[in-house]
Design brief:
By secondary structure, this protein is α+β, with helices and mostly antiparallel strands. The chain has 2 domains: 2-240, ATPase, nucleotide binding domain (Nucleotidyltransferase, domain 5), CATH 3.30.420.40; 254-438 and 459-496, ATPase, nucleotide binding domain (Nucleotidyltransferase, domain 5). It is built from 18 helices and 21 strands. The strands form 7 sheets. The chain has a 7-stranded mixed β-sheet with strand order 17-18-16-15-19-20-21, with helices on both faces. A 4-stranded mixed β-sheet has the order 3-2-1-6, with helices on both faces. Helix 9 packs across helix 16 (442-454). The termini are far apart.
């Protein structure tokens, strides 16, 4: 038996999972789960949202200690959300808490950047959907912070924790591709974009950015004495670069048998798209707001970022603040299921859904702005969000097919959203395609598969790796039922 540990950090929680691989099958268990969330802190100019990176580091260590006490650990891998980073000084000290991508500090920054570097040229190089929180724009916003002048190294979130585990400073390419600083065709840092940052803002990106590594690269032994991790042979446990962007790992774990599939990785965000061999950087693709993020084995994740279960989580937080009870999924999903279908629809790409706060109030405002009926109950609010998500998924997959030429016969929905039967059925209805739901722990499983392959325990071929998931974890199949109603509803929400 081979045992690996996956550190899987999301925007609302983190966990350390252990995986046991034997006879071509993989089982997992949770070693530790801990909370995460952007914390609002006061500044002289207002407020900021920051990550409590030391609390995350404590949670990671607790999880790895638990994993190591249970069994020898053959490898460790780390995945997190994208774009955010920590800055180190020349001695390797972290200069401050990393700022959250949900911070408002980048408002207006993309427009300033495009005055020097046209948006169409940027897309031709990095292939990314323009989001104000892309790292390229965060770096410009950082120029007003004193710490930026002391920065010697930029490490993305998974690479920061990897540095603390091993002392190795790298940037894994799947996550680096979310920064906007990468040339998506060459899978290398873009000299053209870095030159624009230096000429416009004095940002020495070439010095700040570490060397790139591909998924599967051994990064050295875990060198934290209090963890005492060791392999069955007694050697120090190695850290392996996995698809360190959580969606890259999730796509590895899609249990597809052939290439004609679309995927939805549904968690805090929903990442909706197809797997390609080369990027699509056409002007039509740019105008459709599609992104080309790098995947494992030279693949490209051609996808659209759609708001995910974050909206539901923030609704629940608001109702809890108001003193409401019975806010578990087993209560709320049936309430949404009993609500009138397609009564209220909103644009799930609306920027008002991005920040934490009074989410039901914003949803009501969005409905009033577009003439949609305002939800009246919790069930109607959640049905509005779920219907709107399914519609957004259908549009994104339709556009992905049109823009890439990749046929989709089946939709694989992985991540936490795969456990929401209503969302899965509505996605099948809206897309008119069968939906295979599961596994729920797709990100952690994909993380483990790359580790297992790197140490020679699992198959080398990506399709064969996905076969491990098919053999190990059941999926639930949802067939489309009410496609006509969705075609009618599509015209009620403007395309963005």
């Amino acid at each position: 038996m081979t045992t690996v540990a996956a550190v899987d950090l999301g925007a609302t929680s983190g966990r350390v999972l252990t995986g046991h691989y034997r006879d071509g099958r993989l089982t997992i268990e949770e070693a530790v789960r801990f909370p995460n969330g952007a914390i609002r802190v006061r500044t002289r100019s207002g407020a900021d949202l920051q990550w409590d990176v030391l609390a995350l580091w404590q949670g990671i260590q607790a999880g790895l200690r638990t994993a190591g006490r249970c069994a020898p650990v053959d490898a460790v891998g780390i995945d997190t959300w994208g774009v955010d980073y920590g800055l180190l000084d020349r001695t390797g000290h972290l200069l401050g808490n990393p700022t959250s991508y949900r911070s408002a500090r980048t408002d207006g920054v993309p427009e300033r950047f495009f005055e020097r570097f046209p948006a169409d040229r940027l897309y031709a190089v990095n292939g990314l959907q323009v989001q104000p929180f892309n790292t390229v724009f965060q770096l410009i916003a950082d120029r007003t912070q004193a710490a930026s002048g002391l920065a010697d190294r930029l490490l993305l979130m998974p690479d920061l924790f990897g540095f603390w585990l091993t002392g190795r400073e790298v940037a894994e390419v799947t996550n680096a591709s979310t920064t906007g600083l990468l040339d998506v065709a060459s899978r290398s840092w873009s000299g053209e974009i870095l030159t624009a940052l230096y000429d416009g803002w004095g940002i020495e990106g070439a010095a700040l950015l570490p060397d790139l590594v591909e998924p599967g690269t051994p990064l050295g032994p875990v060198d934290v004495p209090q963890l005492a991790l060791a392999t069955p042979a007694g050697a120090p446990t190695p850290l392996v670069a996995v698809g360190s962007h959580d969606t890259a790992s999730a796509v590895v774990a899609v249990p597809a048998e052939e290439g004609t599939f679309g995927y939805i990785s549904c968690g805090t965000w929903s990442l909706v798209g197809v797997e390609l061999d080369a990027p699509v950087c056409s002007e039509e693709s740019r105008r459709a707001n599609f992104t080309n993020e790098l995947g494992v084995d030279g693949t490209v994740r051609y996808l659209k970022n759609v708001m995910g279960l974050w909206v539901v989580t923030e609704c629940i937080n608001y109702w809890r603040y108001l003193g409401q009870t019975d806010l578990g999924w087993d209560t709320l999903v049936p309430e949404a299921g009993r609500a009138q279908p397609l009564r209220s629809l909103i644009d799930m790409n609306d920027a008002r859904l991005l920040a934490p706060g009074e989410m039901p109030v914003r949803i009501a405002e969005m409905c009033r702005d577009t003439g949609e009926p305002v939800p009246r109950t919790r069930g109607e609010y959640l049905r509005c969000v779920t219907d709107s998500l399914a519609l957004a998924y259908a549009r994104a997959l339709e556009d992905a097919t049109r823009l890439s030429g990749r046929e989709i016969r089946t939709v694989h929905l992985v991540g936490g959203g795969s456990q929401n039967a209503l969302l899965c059925q509505l996605t099948a209805d809206a897309t008119g395609l069968p939906v295979e739901a599961g596994p729920a722990e797709g990100t952690g499983l994909g993380n483990m598969l790359i580790q297992l392959r790197a140490i020679g325990a699992a198959p080398a071929d990506l399709t064969a790796l996905r076969g491990v998931i098919r053999r190990s974890f059941p999926t639930v199949r949802y067939r489309p039922c009410t496609a006509h109603a969705w075609h009618t509803a599509d015209g009620r929400v403007p395309r963005t």
